[in-house]
Amino acid sequence: MNDFLTTYAFLIVPILKIAILVFIVLTVDAYLTWLERKVIAHIQARWGPHRVGPHGLLQPLADGVKFIFKEDPLPANVDKVAYFLAPFITLLLALTSLAVIPFGPQKFTVFGYETHVGIADVNISLLVLFAITALGVYGVALAGWASNNKYSLLGGLRSSAQMISYELTLTLSVVGVLLLAGDFSLRGIVEQQAAGKGLLSWYVFPQIIGFACFYIAAIAETNRVPFDLPEAESELVAGFHTEYASMKFAMFFIAEYTSMISVSCLATILFFGGWLSPFPDSWTFTHYLPSVLLIPFGLWVIFDGIRYENVFGRIMLPGVGAAIAAVGALTAVPAINPYVQGPFWFFAKVFIFLFVYIWMRGTLPRFRYDQLMSFGWKFLLPVSIANVVLTSVVILWRMH
Amino acid sequence: MTASLVIFFVLATVTVLAAISLIVQRHPIHGALSLIVVMVALAGLYLLMGAEFVAAVQIIVYGGAIMVLFVFVIMLLNAEEEERTNFSKLATYAGVPLALAVAGFIAAAIARSSGSLPAADPSGALTSTKTLSTLLFSDFVYPFELTSFLILVAILGAIVLAQREN
């Protein structure tokens, strides 16, 4: 048995990693919907989900059950192949994009097979990501076309036009980072930003224009507010997914949240130093920051939970709080502490980007379609090209 | 049979089947979808030869940009299913013999040079992004610049055509 494991470790370990990552990402997706509803509710002075479980914490579970058991009607005269393929393509590509993202610096050995945190360490990972993004348009376009519905078709056309337009800016805005790092590998780009000075060596400072273009284009690519025209409900019912119900509808949404996660990961890696700490290397006391944040948060959840309005909440919330505090305490153990640093900073930064996504949805109005197009082509694209020229000139000037 | 050989045959089969499907499909969208599969499978074949950059660009440019335009135009024109004509005169007297001749020519060329075809460099050193870009901007800089000039002219032409009414 052990022989089998070590011989086929090159196959077994990646499959295990993929299973773990997909499980984590789908869970995070589910709780991202909860967070989004909660945050937007509080922005609008409402409670948000509050009935299913304490503070609505079991709402994603109820949603999942609902999606599975809903009727899944097939509209008349749809193009069956494309209609079924569209949600699968969308979800498949969204999940695949996470495969090339490195989550931490450490390497570890499982069954005698050395591997790292993240699924595949490709030397052209950034190009692979763009290739996956380039294919992402088909899911939306096909869904809109195959549904045999004018709102779907309009939504699909709009959203493909939008994704093609902003993909250019997305790609060009990253060229500045590529010029600075001289590497297509995401791991390499993060390592280039590690100069021991902490936050100051991140690419967001030399590439502030590039970052602005990247983030705006990335929001447009993921079809989120203020660029959520494909689903402008006041004009297009629900855009390209009007005719989708049940699990197929859920797949579009899981894909949308997964793309949000991968875009946030990409922004973190390219411009915010990935898993690097914002503090200089010499400040070793900052290594205990995870514990300092998690233990009080856990204690607060316990304290808040014992006063909750029903018995179930009075049991569940302190349990969750105790778990959080325990994790916080574990991260302070010297044997574990160094391994926590990378993932902690990585996920903290990704969380901030995800929160900004939700924050914008709660505050910004939607673009008009012509505004969207002229903004993308007449402003964002020229600015990102100018950024490439500027960066190249500065690099050349420094070389001489 | 090594793993890479297995992958090669899987990808090659997918490429050929998708190419056949591209011709056989009656609906333009299904044809376009088959072509996308061909492009992606071809990218996989490039990857097998160690040409990662070419593989990624193949998907970004052909699989993404160009095929999206195809799909977009088909969707905008709302193209219906094709009418099937059973072999026009042109197809019987020119198309079929010509197709057979081309197939025979290619088969003969492969048969004659079998065994003597140079293998791709498995290390990928020749096809890495750095070597490729160095070559493009040193040895092949004139063809490269000429191509970009051609593309620029084509873009201008497209704009002129689109604005003809004003």
Question: Can you describe this structure?
Answer:
The complex is a heterodimer of chains A (400) and B (166). By secondary structure, chain A is mainly alpha-helical. Chain A has one domain. Chain A has 15 helices and two strands. Chain A has helices at 2-7, 9-43, 59-69, 80-96, 125-135, 137-146, 150-181, 186-192, 208-221, 233-236, 246-271, 289-305, 311-330, 337-363, 369-399, and strands at 107-110, 113-116. By secondary structure, chain B is mainly alpha-helical. Chain B has two domains: 1-80, Up-down Bundle (Four Helix Bundle (Hemerythrin (Met), subunit A)), CATH 1.20.120; 126-166, no CATH class. Helices cover 75% and strands 0% of the residues of chain B. Chain B contains six helices and no strands. Chain B has helices at 3-24, 28-48, 52-77, 89-113, 129-137, 141-162. In chain B, helix 1 (3-24) runs antiparallel to helix 2 (28-48). The longest helix of chain B has 26 residues, at 52-77. Chains A and B meet through helix 4, helix 5, helix 6 and helix 7 of A and helix 2 and helix 3 of B.
Radius of gyration of chain B: 20 Å
| CATH level-four homologous superfamily name of the largest domain in chain B | NADH-ubiquinone/plastoquinone oxidoreductase chain 6, subunit NuoJ
The 3D shape of chain B can be described as globular
Please mark out the parts of chain A with pLDDT under 50 across 5 or more consecutive residues, or reply none. none
How would you sum up the major sheet of chain B? Answer: none
H/I helix tally of chain A: 15
The first-to-last residue Cα distance of chain B is 64 Å
Main sheet strand line-up of chain A: 1-2
| Secondary-structure-derived class of chain A | mainly alpha
Determine the most extensive contact between two protein chains. A-B, 28 and 22 residues
Radius of gyration of chain A, CA atoms, in whole angstroms: 22 Å
What's the rounded overall pLDDT mean of chain A? 84
**CATH topology type of the largest domain in chain B:** Four Helix Bundle (Hemerythrin (Met), subunit A)
The secondary-structure element order of chain B is HHHHHH
Instruction: Tell me the series of helices and strands of chain A, N- to C-terminal.
Output: HHHHEEHHHHHHHHHHH
